[in-house]
Structures are given as structure tokens and as C-alpha cells.
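Pipeline run #58 for the internal structure catalog. This entry was flagged by the ingest filter as a single-chain record with no existing model, so it goes straight to prediction. Upstream metadata was stripped on purpose; only the residue string is passed forward. Reviewer on rotation: M.T. Logging verbosity set to normal.
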Amino acid sequence: MSAQEIRANSVLPAERRPLALTTDDGLRLVGEVALPDGRPARATLVCAHPLPTHGGMMDSHLLRKAAWRLPALADIAVVRFNTRGTSSAAGASEGEFDGSDGEGLDLRAAVSWSRGAALPEPWLLGWSFGSDVVLRHGVSLDPAGILLVSPPLRYTSASELAAWNALTCPVVCLVPERDDYLRPDQARERFAAIPRAQVVEGRDAGHLWVGEPAVRTVLGEIVSRLRPDMPPLAWEWPESRAAIEGSMERWSDL
């Protein structure tokens, strides 16, 4: 059976819808949901992006590639949004950057939307700055689990870390071997405050997980947690599926 290899700019079939989220303090946020096309989602991932004052947004590459691939490969619904004051090709969210305080209301709005849409109970993914947003505000949202990608622990206090001991959901930390802010040994020491937290080391990866091998590591870990019933992903799109579900496209702005 022939298949096309999935590459950095590969976009697989999905039902993609723009979102307009409203926060409890009245801000309108720009977002998108990517859903399996023609079948129900089996899991939900709500994503919080890296630091917007340094270019982070809902289209930061790991999050965009999760939305491009995971609905088709693993039946995972992927919810992305721009936090307050953040812009991307999809548009600008209202408000101003708030150093991970007000961004907790942004995360709450995305989780509320996913639950209102009757999607499976959400896992929260925070990348870099987004991991602080998840750690500081996610406990009150009672998620199915959290995935922290390159967590710098810049804004999160010791008491906010310890608050996760009130829940039993999985806490998974993906820490690059060459991270600029928090490396695996340091992460194990800091996350010892949550005894069930798992620190997964990203071999040969840096803070931004640049390169297809690093991307596959992150997306593979997501699938292994959200869809433990599935075998490891094969990074290809079979012609048999393309004939039924649609061909793999190439995004042209990369």
C-alpha cells in the first residue's frame, strides 16, 4: 500500500472552524477548532501558546502542526486561541498581555467552549509561557490531564505547583535536553512538588522543538497520552485514506 510521508508543511483533512471566544471579563478572543472530518472526536486538546511578547501565538509551529495532523491521525479535536492582546493570521484578540494573570480567563473561555460543544473532556497543553498559564489556572478547570511543553516555571509559584496535588489527573512535562530555561534534571527537582508528575526528556531538542524529529516527539507524546489505545503514529498518509477522506495538502507559507 503506497502512502505519502508527512512533512513539516503537511496539512491533513479535518473540519476546521474559526472560534470567537468571550472571556469572563468581556474580551473577545480569536481561535480555531480542528475536528476529525466526518466522525466524532475521541479526545480534546486545548492549547495555550508561548510568550506573545516574543512572537508566541496560536500559530506557533507545534500548535499549528498539532491542528494540521492530529484530527486525522488520532481523532483528536485541537482547540487553539490567541490570548489577550495577541495577533496571528487568524486575527487579533482583544485586550493586553497580562503576564499570565488575565490569560487564565482566556484559558477558561477555551475550556468552557470545548465543554459547551460536547467534546471529550479536555487535556490542556501549555507550551513555554502557556505552561505557566496552565499551571497557575488549570486546577480550577479540572482537566482530564495536562501536558507542559518546555515549561520555564517563570510565573508559577511553589504553592501553585503544589495545588495540583488536589487533583489526580496526569501531569506530563516534555522537557528538551537543551532547553534554554529549565533542563530535565532541574525540571525533575522542581516538579517533585507533584509526585505523580512525569518528566519526559526531549533528546537533541531545544526550547522551540525545531525540526521534524522534535515535532514528531511532541505529537507522539500527545497521542500516547490522549489516545493510549492507539499504536505509535506512522508519519504518512495512505493513498487508501486519501481516496476516501481527502488528499494531504501542502501549506505554502513555510
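catalog note: The chain has a mean pLDDT of 97.
catalog note: Residues 3-250 form a domain with the Rossmann fold fold (CATH 3.40.50.1820).
status: ready for reviewer M.T.
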